[in-house]
Amino acid sequence: MAVRLCDVASLLRSGSWATEPWTGQVIAAMETQLSNGPTCNNTSNGPSTISNNCSSPVESGSMEDSKTNLIVNYLPQNMTQEELKSLFGSIGEIESCKLVRDKITGQSLGYGFVNYVDPKDAEKAINTLNGLRLQTKTIKVSYARPSSASIRDANLYVSGLPKTMTQKELEQLFSQYGRIITSRILVDQVTGVSRGVGFIRFDRRIEAEEAIKGLNGQKPPGATEPITVKFANNPSQKTSQALLSQLYQSPNRRLDNLLNMAYGVKSRFSPMAIDGVTSLAGINIPGHAGTGWCIFVYNLAPDADESILWQMFGPFGAVTNVKVIRDFNTNKCKGFGFVTMTNYDEAAMAIASLNGYRLGDRVLQVSFKTNKTHKA
DNA sequence: TCCTATT
């Protein structure tokens, strides 16, 4: 299922635009996903834990721990609740799904919850979707701990760390105070060298408090300078500057610009407004239907499923929906499916990259969906 | 001197 995508990477590498910087990111994204497969500890974009606590319930939580409720971390900023539901719904029936958003701005906080009807589907989701690359993110899928006030505000900011200290050493230093959920050392983007600052998220706030008492102002073993340990800034304390810059980077602006350049269409920044404008103007744009750009994928194998479509198209950008068309009686794929993507340029890049791609012994045909039944 | 993990 997760097979053969490395072929895409080599295909991309040999392609003419494989030298563009962000294409390289896509390749790197795919290679990470495909060589490692879904893993607990993530690669470049998110904090990770070294200890094996990625999905294990708290020991003391015992029977209370849900086996159907998952927390999904490191979601792309522009991923919506519907996309989340669509992605995880490809595994099994979902009881409920929630993307957590900032109360004031409504912006995604980059994580959410998916509660399945069947515990087996929750387990399957962890096994198949944890570590999935979506755009620049590697999502993390694990069991949600029972919600309680005691697990909130347990994130510590640590500074003054020796530049040589590894993430593992950082965890070793803090693990005496409790169960570490995530840890991270920030590094210089260019050199990759430690910036001497990092984060430790504990399971419970009291553990974090004890770690501050025990380690703030102390010198780690072998260090010459003391470290500072304090509670990390709360995301809600983000400056309005940062919020404005986030809003400014809304991906719809790019679609807006593209439409403007290609068709002279003036539109607002929401897909609804764009649909309204394009339909009013009587413009027929191939593949542009409803909430995004619909892509036709032909020559899928009979056993193809939705997850292969997510895996193929996800790395190129925001995917809102995937569908494998199946025979009603046999439930086998009829050889084709559809993928909806939000942004035109990402959809175009996915088509350019995946059209002609060999999936198993089949050569896929990938294009914008045409509307052959409604000749206007 | 701040990565975004508890609805």
UniProtKB/TrEMBL annotation:
The UniProt GO MF terms for this protein read:
RNA binding
The question of whether Repeat is a record keyword is answered with: yes
Q: Write down the Pfam families for this protein, in alphabetical order.
A: RRM_1
Instruction: Domain (RRM): give its ranges.
Output: 68-146, 154-234, 293-371
| Record-linked SUPFAM superfamilies | RNA-binding domain, RBD
**What's the encoding gene here?**
ELAVL2
Question: Which PROSITE patterns does the annotation name?
Answer: RRM (PS50102)
Entry GO terms, CC? ribonucleoprotein complex
Asked whether the UniProt record includes Transcription among its keywords, one would answer no
Which branch of life, at top level? Answer: Eukaryota
What are the alphabetically sorted keywords of the record?
A: Repeat, RNA-binding
Q: Which family does it belong to?
A: Belongs to the RRM elav family.
Instruction: Report the source organism.
Output: Oncorhynchus kisutch (Coho salmon)
* Name assigned to this protein: ELAV-like protein
